[in-house]
Amino acid sequence: MEKILFDQLQEEMYYEKLSNGLDVYVLPKKGFNKTYATFTTKYGSVDNHFSPPGKEEVQVPDGIAHFLEHKLFEKEDGDVFQQFSKQGASANAFTSFTRTAYLFSSTSNVEKNLETLIDFVQEPYFTEKTVEKEKGIIGQEITMYDDNPDWRLYFGLIQNMYKNHPVKIDIAGTIESISHITKDMLYECYHTFYHPSNMLLFIVGPVDQQEIMKLVKDNQALKEYKELPEIKRIFEEEPQIVAEKKQVLQMNVQTSKCLVGIKAVNVNQTGKEMMKTELSLNVMLDILFGKSSDHFSTLYNDGLIDETFSFDYTQENGFGFAMVGGDTSDPDRLAEVLKGILLGAKGTITTESLERTKKKKIGAFLRAVNSPEYIANQFTRYAFNEMNLFDVVPTLESITLEDIEKAAGELLSEERFTVCQVVPKR
Amino acid sequence: MGIISESVQAINGYKLHIVNTDKYKTNTIVWKMKAPLTKEDVTLRALLPYVLQSNSEKYPTTGKLRSYLDELYGASFFVDLAKKGEFHIISFSLEMANEKFLTDPTPLLKKGFEFLTEILLKPNLNNHAFNKVTVENEKRTLKQRIQSVYDDKMRYSNYRLVQEMCKDESYSLHVHGEMEAVEPITAEQLYEYYLQALKTDELDLYVIGDVKEDEVKAIAEQLLPFDDRKPQVIEASVNHEKRNVHEVKEQQDVKQGKLNIGYRTNILYGDDDYYALQIFNGIFGGFSHSKLFLNVREKASLAYYVTSRLESHKGLMMVMSGIDNKNYEEAVRIIHEQMEAMIKGDFTEEEMNQTKAVIKNQLLETVDTSRGMVEVLYHNVVSRKDISLQEWMDKMDQVKKEDVMAVAKKVNLDTIYFLTGKEEL
Question: A294: domain range?
């Protein structure tokens, strides 16, 4: 077991790679009541075209990773939620573009709950009957999102950007696409992506690292895993320019919404380089659009934006994007103004605003690491991209005007801009 | 010592609550202002904190004010509103880094207090009125905030249920006030209301973090002086007559129907049977092991979400779910059956224990965040009780099955609201 110290944050973390390939991290947090654990596979909605171990390549129905997440909770003797709640825990799971995470939090019976978590994820039980039943439930989840204008806006924008990449597919799929899912397909995806060597277990809370590590090792020693050949994921070539410049969705709303998106380049980065790009662009967006910026004040005073206004840059292996926008009284004008600000950003950023924003981001990071959920989820996300969450503060401190100019120069190009709007139905 | 060590003292016209803990990397200050929920005041109260947080005498623009917060290592500062029973509550929250985790050792807590004082006591004024441009901007945003409820169908249907259910009670007012009352508000009138609120609202200040009690008290006494006042007490009206079930259907262009059902529990926070009510809600619908989740979702496949929650200070329980329009009758039937099962005592000791364990877990988790801790502690202010978290959990542990069955008999179905798609009516 390796011990990793973070002096400035006064935290320590323990790490071990088990013989079956599973990465296990323990971060003891004293004074907290709650222990939070996530068990995550590097498998998300974008992994829909791949070669299962020793087999020909397959293309699976949209939404299957998320469907699999739902189905893992069901076992022959009932559902795992029951088990967790008997042990005083609350359990949950989520599927993103690139990850599926299973988690619990509890203030008692931590060992038992941790075993339950590992075991239920590692013991799939799918039948045709339970697969069929789930289609009704997930169908309602899909319908719920269909009525949600913010979700539609967000996905509409991604669909505008990507021509081929499966990031454009809604994570839950469609009612039509999930109708084709069978138990055999679920098993095939499961056996491809749920091997311990493709997974990461993170435990944070008032725990003893030795005991926790021993428990996990003993548990894994009882299970047999064949060595997994490298997973072959297949992605089509994706152009650098956006697929569509604009999309307008008419919905049952009273307030219009507008998001401006920019499709990322450099999406093959990993590690420190990727962290630098991501943080530099987020710092840049904060300087341009944060509440202390002139642009924010002007847009707000002109009534073009309100408190729903937000911005973010995010990058994963193979795709990435910046997004800026929110509710607005004039979606076309907002799109035009935001685009103008972004395209004219080069050369306008001052050292003073950079230093102020870095301070702000460091403070925000300290706030975030009060949260066990944030630590576990973000640590996993960073680790899957060969980054370390705890490098965020030193990386932020190291960002220079040149870093920002460089990242901005690469990103901000007219042909990578796109706009999505939601407007009231006439 | 219990789970939380809260020190409470009355100073300067308000109560100062300090929780000293070293588990966070930040310190949190929350300022709460509580007044009766009334039609006359609610829209003014919905506007006031947003005007105050926009700028001040020293920081006359939002840009200047937010730049200063950035300098304080990105102190997070926001306001929010809540409706608890018969009261309307305004909160100002400030959370800032504890300098011991920074390479720069400038003490931030005192600066945080000074900032809060500036916001509360030194607003941006022109001739005995708030700055007009600020007020007009925030009026516009408030209107958008009120309007946006319509666009989020989950929030909308929940709001509509409360409106229908509590028609003749102030509780039917929206926490953000009324659309038609926004425009007429003037900068002068809002300023007058501000002076009145500072004089008559019940005030509470929470400070949470790795702090020294004496130091905090000295700072608070110096920077935030107010006159003593008598808190306004309103007896919440429970024990509603059982009435005929009120059924409301509303049609809109939506794909998924939203089913919201309201019950009167006739039990308030801190009542003897309040703890049994918590267990009742947990077995019935509060969790993913509850009857609603098992029967509406897992067995019948009708919904993705179906849950019940309590409004502890108003004596309400509300069920919410999203279903296909055509499944309305079936969903309502299954939900009624679960209620019948609760009344008949059709639940096991195991379900009792499971629910106790989960609620206990939820409470302990809530107090792991400083904001959660403030909310848990503030229940005592609203209810004028003094129940510690330990007492809360002990009393819950003692609840027996017959107590839960007795509660089930007190819970009355009141209103069923359904937001339905176009084709079905």
Answer: 246-424
Q: Do B63 and A32 touch (CB under 8 A)?
A: no
Same domain, A17 and A104: yes
Residue A69 a catalytic site member: yes
CA distance B220 to chain A (A): 24
Contacts (Cβ under 8 Å, ≥6 apart) of A120: A72, A73, A75, A80, A83, A102
Q: Phi and psi for A324 in degrees, rounded to 5?
A: -140, 135
The predicted pLDDT at position B295 comes to: 97
Chain A hits for B255, Cβ within 8 Å: 143, 146-147
- A223 and A321 in a common domain: no
Summarize pLDDT for B265-322 with one digit per residue, the tens: 999 999 999 999 999 999 999 999 999 999 999 999 999 999 999 999 999 999 999 9
Cα A404 off chain centre by: 24
From A148, which residue of chain B is nearest by alpha-carbon distance? B152
Residue in A258, A285, A286 with CA at minimum distance from that of residue A411? A285
Chain A residue numbers touching B360 (CB-CB < 8 A): 88, 107-108
Could you give the CA distance from residue B324 to residue A309 in angstroms, rounded to a whole number?
32
Q: What is the pLDDT of residue A346?
A: 85
In the predicted model, is pLDDT for residue A95 greater than 60? yes
Same domain flag for A147 and A260: no
The minimal CB distance from A292 to the residues B67, B133, B324 is found for: B67
The minimum CA-CA distance between B239 and chain A, rounded to whole Å, is 33
Task: Select the residue from B64, B154, B361, B365 to test the A interface by mutation, using most A Cβ atoms within 10 A.
Answer: B361
A261 and A348 inside one domain: yes
Q: What is the pLDDT of residue A104?
A: 97
Q: From CA B398, how far away is CA B408, in angstroms rounded?
A: 17
Q: Is residue A149 part of a domain?
A: yes
Residues A222 and A250 in one domain: no
Q: Is residue A55 part of a domain?
A: yes
Distance of residue B26 Cα from the nearest chain A Cα, in angstroms: 6
Backbone phi and psi for residue A177, each to the nearest 5 degrees, phi listed first? -65, -40
Mean pLDDT of chain A: 95
Considering only CB atoms, which chain B residues are within 8 Å of A253?
150-151
Q: Tokens at residue B317, please?
A: 């329980």
Residues of chain B with pLDDT under 70: 1-2, 236-240, 423-425
Domains and CATH numbers, chain B: 6-223 (3.30.830.10), 246-424 (3.30.830.10)
**pLDDT (mean) for A223-232:** 88
- For residues A221 and A250, state if they share a domain: no
Q: Measured between alpha carbons, how far is residue A305 from residues A112, A157, A227, A308, B137 in Å?
A: 49, 18, 54, 8, 11
d(CA B307, CA A146): 20
- Kindly state whether residues A71 and A142 are assigned to the same domain: yes
Structure tokens at A276: 């630098």
Q: Quote ipTM for the complex.
A: 0.91
In a domain, A415, yes or no: yes
CB contact under 8 A, A367 and B25: yes
Number of domains in chain A: 2
Q: Is there a single domain that holds both residue A371 and residue A328?
A: yes
Token pair, residue A281, equals 């662009």
- Quick one: average pLDDT of A350-374? 93
The reported pLDDT for the residue numbered B238 is: 66
Q: How confident is the model at residue A347 (pLDDT cuts 50, 70, 90)?
A: confident
Residue A85: pLDDT band (50, 70, 90) is very high
Whether A395 is in a domain gets the answer yes
Output the pLDDT for position B231. Answer: 80
pLDDT at res. A230: 85
The residue annotated as part of the active site, out of A2, A16, A69, A132, is: A69
- Which residue among A233, A257, A278 closes a domain? A233
- CATH number of the domain residue A108 falls in: 3.30.830.10
| End-of-domain residue from the set A188, A211, A233 | A233
The pLDDT value given to residue B424:
45
